[in-house]
Amino acid sequence: MPDTAPFTETTHFLPLRRRTLAQHLGRGTPPATPLEQAGLLAAQLCRLHAHPGAQLERLLHDACALFAADDGSAVAAQLSGKGGEGQPALDAWLAELAMHGVLLAPDEAVERFVAASPDAYPGADFQAACQVTLAEHTIRYPATAAPDDEGEAVDPESDPEEEAPRASGAIERNGLFTSEQARVLRAIAANPDELIDLDAYAGTGKSHLVLALMDARPGRYTYIAPSRGQVEAFRPRLPADSGTRLLTQIELANLMVQQAARSGRGNGFVPTYRLSTIPAWEITRRIGLQGIGQRVPEQVLMTALEGINRWCASASPTLQAAHFDRSLPWAMLDAVPYVAAAEHVWRCMFDAGVQKGGCLSLNTGHLGKWLELQGVAPPVGLGMLLVDEAHELSPAWKQVLARHAPGVVSLGDPHQRLVGRASRWSSSKVLEMSQSVRQGSQVDGLVNQSLALDDIGASSERFMGASDRATGVRRYATWSQVPLSGARLYGSLWRLLQEAHQLLAQGAHVHVHPASLRLLQKEAQAPIDAWRSVRRGESSRRWEAFVEACEQRGQGDIPALFSGGFDSTALEQLLAALVPVQEAGITLCLAQHAKNLQFDRVAMSACCFITGYETRQAHSPVRAAYLALTRGSQQLWLPGDAMEQLQLSAQRHAESLETRRMEKRRAAGHVKR
Fold it and tell me: Helix 444-453 to helix 642-667 angle, to the nearest 10 degrees?
């Protein structure tokens, strides 16, 4: 039966040492003191199902009093064991307890309370003594040259080279932090003008650090996030009157290009973020782009834009032939015409006449490259920048931020960058955080195994779950054992679609993560159209390729969904039946889209670990699995052979990348066929 017991709000600790439980399992003897006897009785009950915290507290109190007054008969009746059980049984007990939010207390805590009062359960004092991950720390924020309480917004008319405001006095703040968080906070506060790379594993509390910094000195820092959604999710956690500055990366880029334009850069044109709705043929006509060889102007435009995007994501100061090796591998020996076309398109992207009416799109990658080439720096008045998800920043943006005099804290996790490698400053202070405050130590082995498979290598620090948080790990034999609640993560879009279809048919309230939903809407029409062609007696080549790909991935049942009647109308009905996340009992999401999410219960489908077949697969299957493994705070469900399959997927992905590299080299004439 699926474990659908309600979650406890916090981890509960039993007054029972690990070695005492091991002795009971091995010898069948009960603990020596009423306090640990009560802990063992509670462990026996908590293995079976979860108990509310107040109920568990009463049980421990009453059992301890009962055993203290007993002549030994109650202890013998309740706690005598059969014995003969070893480490596997102990591991099973601990895993079952963790699934219900219960842990054995640290040995030192039990020993201290047993010595002080072996016949009485100490209640709240005992539970508080077991909470060891977070502790009270005093953080001293030295005097700085930034405003303290003014909380003024940055004036878009101000000179970006102006001096920072007057100094503010040193202050102290107390708060609950891990020892790592306290160390990082002190380093940031004491180095206000530094470039700091903070590498922090998932769930280690980067947002908690940002809140602490901004609460201490609201005008000293500006928080930068990639998207509006992240900024708005962060805003309610700050005091309404703090005057704290929160910007998206688009807003930062627009602010910088506006100031650059006022200082004479850009020939009077303000190249702010914009999306073009003009069709490709009209764009080519307006900018005078010609065809190349057999390629019509619209195809040349698409090729030029792809090359520009790859150039903007690189450290190269100029467009190179290598930026076209994905779209034109066969043209590597003569890419000069395409480089010239891309250079022309780039000039038009920043031409006031061409861009009147929004001819060409400009995204943050384009703006970052333009700002780098123009030598622009962020406004000094922003204070120290706290840049979230900085592992996604391009080398150009890193270079732009490096010019910021008040300093920058780059908050990121290189293992969460699904494609490519995180850009680094050539010289910066590097700080690390590996202590999770989201998950318990029960997931350590799984997470560190996934990190070890990443081709960038693991950090110098291993991921560490919190010793005082219970995250139960359950290995399922069949997917039907997984609870019908919480989040379900997938490595296959088709498996997600299939299960959404089945769950909705069962009457479940289903939500699909927006990024996964957009991909589903984009990709689902292809197999629908392929099967429609087969039914009409037309070419079956596309359908056969789809069936072959599904069989290769062990998903031979997926084509039956489409051949069984799932068509465009059924897709529309499915999309209409989905509910907002607030109303959902189950949330479905692809593993690669799980960034910034957290759930009490997470179940990972087998397809999260069986992937890496595609030679064109964009993301690393290992990093996607790492993202998924670090989302669940209280329960994590995964198949029994998960890590073995992930290792095979990593090998397949590496082989696919090598195949792709060899194809490029052959196309460029460097390798004989």
Answer: 20
Pairing of strands 171-177, 135-141: antiparallel
Give residue 673's identity as a one-letter amino acid code: R
Structure-token match 């502790």, residue found: 135
Strand 472-476 vs strand 102-104: parallel, antiparallel, or unpaired? unpaired
Q: What is the pLDDT of residues 562-605, one digit of tens each?
A: 999 999 999 999 999 999 999 999 999 999 999 989 999 999 99
**Distance in angstroms (rounded) separating the CA atoms of residues 32 and 12:** 22
Helix (H, G, I), strand (E, B) or coil at 425: coil
Contact present, 543 and 533 (Cβ < 8 Å): yes
**Among the listed residues 35, 46, 31, 32, the one whose alpha carbon sits nearest the alpha carbon of residue 125:** 35
CA distance 104 to 94: 8
Three-state DSSP class for residue 565: coil
The conformation of residue 439, written as its DSSP 8-state character, comes to E
Cβ 115 vs Cβ 32: under 8 Å: no
E strands present in 168-325 = 171-177, 195-200, 221-225, 245-248
CB 312 within 8 A of CB 350: no
Gap between the Cα atoms of 359 and 289, Å rounded: 13
Residue 22 confidence (pLDDT) above 90: yes
Is 172 buried (19+), middle (13-18) or exposed (0-12) by CB count in 10 A? exposed
* pTM tops 0.85, yes or no: yes
List all residues 6 or more positions away from 247 whose beta carbon is below 8 Å from its beta carbon: 222, 223, 224, 225, 231, 255
- Token reading at 649: 């997927």
CB 438 within 8 A of CB 598: yes
What is each CA distance from 529 to 497, 520, 534, in whole angstroms?
A: 16, 14, 9
75-89, 158-172, 325-339: the lowest-pLDDT one: 158-172
Q: Which helix (H) or strand (E) holds 658?
A: helix 642-667
- Alpha-carbon span 410 to 49, nearest angstrom: 43
> How far from the centroid of its chain's Cα atoms is residue 11's Cα?
24
H or E element, residue 429? strand 429-433
User: Could you tell me which residues come within 8 angstroms of residue 98 by beta carbon, excluding any fewer than 6 positions away?
Assistant: 440, 442, 470, 471, 472, 473
Q: Which helix (H) or strand (E) holds 87?
A: helix 87-99
CB atoms within 10 A of CB 37: 27
Q: Angle 390-451-591 (CA atoms, 0-180°, nearest 5)? A: 70
